[in-house]
Amino acid sequence: MELLINAGIVLATVAGMEAFAWWSHKYIMHGWGWGWHESHHRPRTGWFEKNDLYAIVFAGLAILLIALGNAGYWRLQWIGAGMTLYGLLYFIAHDGLVHQRWPFRYVPRNGYLKRLYQAHRMHHAVDGREGCVSFGFLLAPTTQKLKQQLREIHGGALDSSRERKARDQAEEGVE
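-> structure tokens emitted (175 positions)
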């Protein structure tokens, strides 16, 4: 029974982290934390960007929770494990798949990974921190919904250069 409880805590934490990641991406990273996150919306020079500091902060929190769990507050250990699992999924889906920070290139051609890829590319189709869509990392709306949101946010059709950029980024890698 304890195994099921621990697994439930890990899975609930992963789900909670996606909700928190959406909120923090929209209101912190595109708000008062833009100073770190802006580097992520600019061309990267080298392996690292200032935005990677967010990963270090969350990894530090997960390590602290695991340590507290080992010190007797056992549920915190499993919350830390859930945060770590979310971080791994984030690294695979966001850093690897979408932003190609792996030593090899893979662009999904169909299915959910394609949807995730396109949604995040559309997030980057808008210059700056205002007017973006799709703030989640593992859950993504359809491209049709995101295009509609972009039109609503920008007061109608996007200007041709922005619309072309959004379309090109959404369709990148599609044959």
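Residues 96 and 104 are 9 Å apart (CA to CA).
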